[in-house]
Amino acid sequence: MAALKFTDFNLYSYKIQLRKTLKLKSVSIDSREGLILKIFDDDGNCGFGEIAPLPGFSRENLDDAKSQTIQICNTLKTSRSQLQPEKINSALKDFPGDVYPSVSFGVASALLILSADRRNISLSELLNKNCSGSLQVNALLSGSKEEILASLPHIKESNYGSVKLKVGSKELSEDIDLTQKVREQLGESIHLRLDANRSWSLEQAAAFHSQTKDCQIEYIEEPVSNSSELQLLLADSSIDIPIALDETLTEIEISDLKKFSSASALVLKPTLLGLEKTFGFAELAKSQKITCVFSSSYESVLGLSIVAQLAAAYSTNIACGLDTLGIYADDSYLKLFPVKDGRIEMKNIEVLNRQFESLSLKEV
């Protein structure tokens, strides 16, 4: 692949109102804020990236991310070196201190998309010439118990192959009851994924599993409070819980994955991991035959489209966690990221200029 150099960049901010308050660990938000990076070369080609730390999950805040993005882009713009696309991630290692994960995702994505634009191909094609032309998407179940159960007929009619249910915020008996009812109403053909967000003790996780063994759960994300307890749970052969790693991936190095080799899946969120760790975990999981599920961190439609292209490069027929645009008050974004029959066709979302133009942006 030909070397590249960008000659200028613009950085924009966005603020999108949510349909209703979103609870994220210790914080609640009514809007989603982030930055959009656009870079150019002398031939008029451009690349896009999104930098949107997620409150309650990202270690950096938006002001920190903005300052670091500007610093990195100014340095890269004035550098005499030409970047090879396959070395874009390593180029970010040269900066003093840690590059924030959201900045790594945004800047590296923009550089890679610029490289793809120069070749007139998509990001997913740049990363893998045999990339997927479409992606399965898991439906996200949210709201009260009544709202969740009322939504299931529509999900079945919409031909979703997988759904994801949040658990852990209620009494354990309520989570067990809801899980059983969701499975009963969905039938056996739809995969059921759970996300406990580190809400349970080891004893609670074991009790939950004993009561839901017949629910055919594909996996439970982060059932216990920390990665040490997760290792204990994975090592306990008497409790055969299929487990997915999510928050744990932000705390460990790629080489540490061997300590969690019996995990069923990795949930890869590029905004929270950065692009280097995302790629590293994806490659290692592939070699160890661990399922990789690319997932949103509630990015804008542009950032979501970039995550989808990464998923298309690495996934074959694994349902992704990309059905998140419904949280926004503005329904128009859904038209730019259409999900039909539980799938997204990559050809419908690869023109990132449309996503960029759809956002109300303010240059910073």
Throw out a few tags for this protein.
364 residues; TIM Barrel; 13 strands; 4-stranded antiparallel β-sheet; globular; 14 helices
Rg (C-alpha, Å): 20 Å
CATH superfamily of the largest domain: Enolase-like C-terminal domain
| Order of the strands making up the biggest sheet | 5-6-7-8-9-10-11
CA(first)-CA(last) distance = 32 Å
Number of separate helices: 14
Assign the CATH architecture of the largest domain. Alpha-Beta Barrel
- As residue ranges, the low-confidence spans are none
Top-tier CATH class of the largest domain: Alpha Beta
Summarize the structure in words:
The protein has about 375 residues and is of the alpha/beta class. The chain has two domains: about 10-120, Enolase-like, domain 1 (2-Layer Sandwich); about 135-355, TIM Barrel (Alpha-Beta Barrel). It is built from 14 helices and 13 strands. β1 and β2 form a beta hairpin. α5 runs parallel beside α6. The relative contact order is 0.15. The model has no long low-confidence stretch (mean pLDDT about 90).
